[in-house]
């Protein structure tokens, strides 16, 4: 089983969007049983909060199932447990380095690397207000990731 953890600042917008999108894609491809998919935050800002309403709206508009959840904080143990830790932006990478030190196992990657866009970041809709643009980036990244993992 491949274990994937998606990471963003607060775990209410981008990482939850990626979690739900990836779960949708693996179900559509009939490989859901081969994956464990979750998401977490790098900061305590929104711990315990449900998915942002803008994220829920855009996912539902694209017929992607959204289930109730609560934002959680990534831990060092998560780095050891998950096979891949996929982050949304370079600030997440910096926060990750502070938490785990060096990525000795090569597990940490920017999501858009999988969309053929190395070094590019998924914009935070908390600030941009553009959940649709974030959705498009997340979908491209998750589709590319699934192709690599299949």
What's the gist of this structure?
The chain is α/β, with parallel strands linked by helices and 150 residues long. The chain has helices at 14-28, 53-61, 76-81, 90-100, 125-128, 131-149; strands at residues 2-8, 35-41, 84-87, 108-110. The chain is 43% helix and 14% strand.
Report on the structure:
- The chain is α/β, with parallel strands linked by helices.
- It has one domain (2-149): Response regulator (Rossmann fold, 3-Layer(aba) Sandwich).
- The chain is built from six helices and four strands, in the order βαβααβαβαα.
- It has a four-stranded parallel β-sheet, sandwiched between helices.
- α1 links the parallel β1 (2-8) and β2 (35-41).
- α1 packs across α6.
- The relative contact order is 0.22.
- The model has no long low-confidence stretch (mean pLDDT 97).
- CATH superfamily membership, which one? Response regulator
- Give the strand order, joined by hyphens, for the main sheet: 2-1-3-4
CATH-derived architecture:
3-Layer(aba) Sandwich
CA distance, first residue to last residue: 12 Å
CATH third-level topology: Rossmann fold
CATH class: Alpha Beta
Tell me the radius of gyration. 14 Å
- Structure classification: alpha/beta
Q: What is the typical, i.e. mean, pLDDT?
A: 97
Low-confidence stretches: none
Whole-number count of domains: 1
- Count of helical segments? 6
Query: How would you describe the shape?
Result: globular
Number of strands: 4
> In sequence order, what are the helices and strands, one letter per element?
EHEHHEHEHH
């Amino acid at each position: 089983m491949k274990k994937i953890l998606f990471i963003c600042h607060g775990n209410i917008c981008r990482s939850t969007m990626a979690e739900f999108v990836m779960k949708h894609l693996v179900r559509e491809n009939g490989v859901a049983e081969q994956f464990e998919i979750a998401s977490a935050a790098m900061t305590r800002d929104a711990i315990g909060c449900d998915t942002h309403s803008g994220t829920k709206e855009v996912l539902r508009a694209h017929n992607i199932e959204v289930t109730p959840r609560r934002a959680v904080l990534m831990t060092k143990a998560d780095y050891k447990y998950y096979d891949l830790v996929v982050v949304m932006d370079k600030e997440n990478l910096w926060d990750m380095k502070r938490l785990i030190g060096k990525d000795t196992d090569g597990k940490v990657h920017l999501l858009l690397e999988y969309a053929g866009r190395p070094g590019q970041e998924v914009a935070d809709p908390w600030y941009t207000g553009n959940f649709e643009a974030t959705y498009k980036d997340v979908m491209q990244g998750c589709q590319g990731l699934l192709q690599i993992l299949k």
